[in-house]
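Have a close read of this protein, sequence plus structure tokens, and explain what the tokens say about the fold. Thanks in advance:
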Amino acid sequence: MSQHDVLGTICSYEATALVSGYLEGLKQTADPYVLERILQSAEVTSKEMEEARSKRVEAIRAFKEMAGKFDILIAPTVPIIAPMLSDIDSNLEKIGSQLSQNTRAVNWVDGCAATIPMNTYDTPGTGLMLFGRAGSDWHVLEMASLIDKVIAPARVKA
């Protein structure tokens, strides 16, 4: 089971537990993509949930150890230039998973993150994600603020 599958298993299982009394209404009103993800948990066994949670606990432990060696970690917020909304609608499954891949990884290891826009107002969206281990929220935000002060003039001048 991949990291994406394990996190998806946990998320859909827990979402179903939260909204199970409202599923019939959600079938009429919810976003079909989100609803499909929630309904996938009907196939999840308790053994799969136990395995998924165990893998996540190990990933959190390993990330905490690794991230403790750095002030901050940096990655693109998304691994692609942000597409137009019309492009997402026609290819939601593929583009949706790409758009959430980096942020999901930080969530997977219980990290915290901030993103800084890198594009000018008239260009497709790009972002720089700064992240760290759980509990480093204020440090991540402080670093994001400092780095944004360096990046912001370039966004305005371009």
